[in-house]
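Quick illustration for those who missed Monday's session on complexes.
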Amino acid sequence: VSPEGRPRVLFGDGSVGALPGVLRGLGVRRLLLITGSASFEASGAKAVLGPRLAGFTTERFSVSSPNPRLEDVGPAIGLFRDGGFDAVVGAGGGTAMDVAKLTATLGSQSEPAMEFIVHGRPLEPRRASLILLPTTAGTGSEVTRFAVVYIAGRKHSLDDPQVSADYAIVDPALTWSMPPALTASTGLDALSQAVEACWSVRSTDAARAYASAAVRLVLEHLEAACLAPTSPAREMLSLAALLSGRAIDIARTTGPHAMAYPLSMTFGVPHGHACALTLPEFLLLNSEITEASLTDGRGVAFVRDRIGDVLRALDVGDAGAGADRIRLLAQRCGLATRLSELGVAAADAERVLLGGFNAQRAANNPRRITPDVIRSIVQRIA
Ligand code: NAD
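Prediction with nicotinamide-adenine-dinucleotide bound:
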């Protein structure tokens, strides 16, 4: 249980079978099930839950495309408002879980969605319970108080305690069906989130403790989970994702995530892979922190100590070795580490990033992200 008491977390192979008991405990009779379109079947969630949910009135809403836009969420919100549901269950990857969070919270408001997403108006309490079941091991969205949504091509976060689920049911067996590339991309999202939570201007001792544990778990288990998956490797990656979610719930993400969103939207690079492309470069750049480039009020020495935390978790002596370690892990898991390998021209990436990188996430980076920093990163990963 998080310090605020929610979400309560049930973790372990087979834990998805606990959902009906959780729903009964919450007094639920009618539930809106928000799932990935193919992943609900592929993950095995449908086979387990289908018969067990027979005693509840259930409607299903399928989410088909990644990076949810507000207009994609509108129909789910409409269904929620018309249906008198007393629970929303989100079962899927980060996309389906974010759509479930947005539906349960925005569907409970009387003001328009933009008031809360763009103008930061605090949310009224949800009118339904929210339960999240991840089928990927990476985002940690099951334990965070924010949801990502795109409006007119720009990434926004609905960030409010009401967005936190009541329960997170983390069943690593639901991730066994992930193919290697998805395992790699989602696992590197957990790694990136954890590293970023260590050096974020909002980092705390608690965030760094969660984050360091997550980094070590990803380093130890991701390659095996991609190349020769075992049940313990899958289990440890689900745990790493959960811990990285706990870490960013406190510290939020930074430079690599700020640059990942436009790369995903424009060039279709999967979210975690897009984060991993620039993570080694941000490790190098942030390790060269100076008074002039500092954004963290706690000072240059403090930021250097936080980079030290990252290097210890990566089990390396300096930032160069840390960057190599992250690149090598991505390569061993079969992912490209350069834009050219992805068919993306450096000039296109530079244009897209200069125009569309996420300022809110960039402001959490301990080193100021200027246009020159962006250009330099693009050159290094070209
Ligand atoms: P995703 O949810 O977009 O899913 C990617 C693909 O994997 C989809 O085609 C899906 O159907 C498939 N899939 C999911 N589970 C599967 C399984 N078990 N077997 C086979 N296929 C499966 O990917 P993701 O990386 O989990 O989520 C990324 C999204 O999460 C991004 O939109 C990102 O912004 C968001 N995110 C949110 C938070 C948060 O705290 N709110 C944190 C990190 C990321």
